[in-house]
Design a protein that fits this description.
The chain is mainly alpha-helical. The protein has 2 domains: about 5-145 and about 240-360, no CATH class; about 150-235, no CATH class. Helix content is about 45%, strand content about 5%. The protein has helices spanning about 5-15, 20-35, 40-45, 55-60, 65-80, 95-100, 110-120, 125-140, 150-155, 240-255, 270-275, 275-285, 290-305, 315-320, 330-350, 375-385; strands spanning about 160-165, 170-175, 175, 190, 220-225, 235. The protein has a 4-stranded antiparallel beta sheet with strand order 2-1-5-6. A hairpin with a 6-residue loop joins strand 1 and strand 2 (about 170-175). Helix 7 runs antiparallel to helix 15.
Length: about 400
């Protein structure tokens, strides 16, 4: 998904769920900041590098090809952008090596999504924002995996955009090109993607890179033939999926506020969204690359407040001016802690399923933990909780 949904639509969902204007801004800022928090940014802030929630294109291009670097990539992308659906999935006749990648395919309403939302329960609004980013991305990124894999993530010439309904449904073949200096041309059906790399573990085969930015557009409806589905047609309907994502965010944030006692899979608060449903569908179906203006207009209509645009530097001064011992209580400090907790939880689940693609588990809940220095503060937090 893009900033239009992660920032402005998340604000709308948070406000509808009952958060105040200022609280909704804090939540949607964190939801969008997940796409910004790279090692490069963290280095400039002298913040924990383990809090990285994304990797910049140049970081990916410069990354080494060793297994440790591949595990680091998987930890980030599987934890925040391509949450695995079934870590114990079976596929007849498959090797262990293939199954490990197959089990990281992202889809909606997974056990890990429940774990993600529950992890944010009782936590900071930064944690809520991170959880909403992860939730939303399960809808946009379903059927792709957050680990480099040609066999899982590749696309071919059979990739068609669908427009119209029923008997009037039209199929237009999407043409992908590999020139990063060009931009998507949605009118002509030309979209920028990563170039084909025959190496199974090439970084070019991460996530939906082979399909370019197309799966992130809310208007996109398409079909293709992924190898993991035994070359059977898979149809993706983003307008419908994105509306479900919005309703699920409202339900999830009501749960975080204590309105609901449990967060259950497959639940969507359509009743709370009903009065805005027509306008939301119009935004989602409108064919353009950026829906920020329309989502912002709707956000201001719903709340009656002016919505400031996302500013990546907004909280950096506060973090840099704070004494080292006080940084954990700043806005970004809370974000970094929540990000490390999410990454730790997902990595632990993947590792305990017998899958080493994300590396070894970082389980900070146990007093006997020893590992990455950045996580020691999480260990201390856990000990303080138990002492109270």
């Amino acid at each position: 998904m893009q900033i239009d949904f992660h920032y402005y639509a998340t604000y709308c969902a948070a406000y509808i769920a009952g958060y105040s204007h200022s609280e909704s801004l804090e939540i949607c800022y964190s939801a969008q900041f997940v796409d910004c928090c790279s090692k490069s940014l963290l280095s400039g802030l002298k913040a924990p590098l383990s809090a990285a929630t994304t990797q910049l294109p140049l970081e990916l291009m410069d990354q080494r090809k060793d297994i440790i670097s591949q595990q680091e990539t998987t930890r980030i992308w599987a934890s925040f952008h391509f949450l695995p659906y079934d870590l114990n999935a079976e596929k007849k006749g498959s090797s262990r090596r293939y199954l490990n990648k197959y089990r990281l395919i992202c889809d909606v309403n997974s056990d890990l999504l429940v774990d993600t939302v529950n992890l944010a329960k009782g936590g900071s609004r930064q944690a809520a924002g991170i959880a909403m980013h992860v939730l939303a991305d399960t809808w946009a990124h379903r059927y792709f995996a957050g680990t480099p894999s040609l066999v899982i993530n590749n696309t071919n010439h059979y990739f068609y955009e669908l427009s119209g309904e029923g008997d009037e449904c039209r199929e237009t073949q999407i043409v992908f090109h590999h020139n990063p200096s060009l931009e998507d041309d949605i009118d002509k059906g030309f979209f920028v993607s990563t170039p084909l790399q025959g190496s199974e573990n090439s970084i070019m085969n991460l996530g939906h890179g082979r399909a370019g930015h197309f799966p992130d557009y809310s208007f996109a409806r398409y079909k293709y033939l992924p190898a993991w589905a035994d070359y059977k047609v898979v149809i993706k309907d983003n307008p419908s999926d994105y509306f479900d994502a919005f309703c699920q965010m409202v339900y999830a944030m009501k749960y975080l506020r204590g309105v609901y006692k449990t967060f259950d899979k497959g639940c969507y608060d359509r009743a709370a969204v009903h009065m805005w449903e027509k306008e939301i569908h119009e935004i989602l179906k409108k064919r353009r690359k950026d829906a920020c203006a329309d989502w912002k207009k709707l956000a201001q209509k719903i709340s009656g407040h002016w919505i400031e645009d996302f500013d990546i530097q907004k909280y950096q001064g506060e973090y840099l001016r704070s004494a080292k011992k006080d940084r954990g209580s700043t806005y970004l400090g809370k974000f970094f802690l929540a990000a490390m907790a999410q990454k730790s939880m997902v990595t632990d689940k993947i590792f305990k399923s017998g899958n080493l693609l994300a590396g070894f588990s970082i389980d900070y809940h146990k007093n006997g933990f020893s590992g990455i220095r950045d996580y020691l503060i999480l260990v201390e937090q856990e000990r303080n909780k138990k002492a109270k």
